[in-house]
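Folding Problem: From Residues to Backbone Shape
Fields: amino acid sequence; protein backbone structure tokens
RECORD BEGINS BELOW THIS LINE
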Amino acid sequence: MKTLIQLEESGLLLLGIYLFSLLDYQWWWFLVLILAPDFSMIGYAAGNKTGAYVYNFFHHLAIAVLVYLVGIYSSNSLLQLTGVILFSHSSMDRVFGYGFKYESGFRTTHLGEIGKQSL
């Protein structure tokens, strides 16, 4: 199942890269911004529950698609860029096994435990 998820998310990441190529931005913007959604980890400063909520909000594919579509509808290239970055980042995270966070802590995700395993 893990391989199937990684293949699916790889395809979505490629779609995100393609959608970025349709925008009028230099490629270095993609490279600079691709990790920006991880700033949502700051939510963990307010505790695990808030951290998980904030992190999951910024890593939700439907939110990314909605932002992108609002950008298309309003002809706002910045919203389109934001949607593409959120979408691509979320897919990239899932390729590497980082999923939605549970309230029990940052390391516990819907794709399993991340980080070094205890011996």
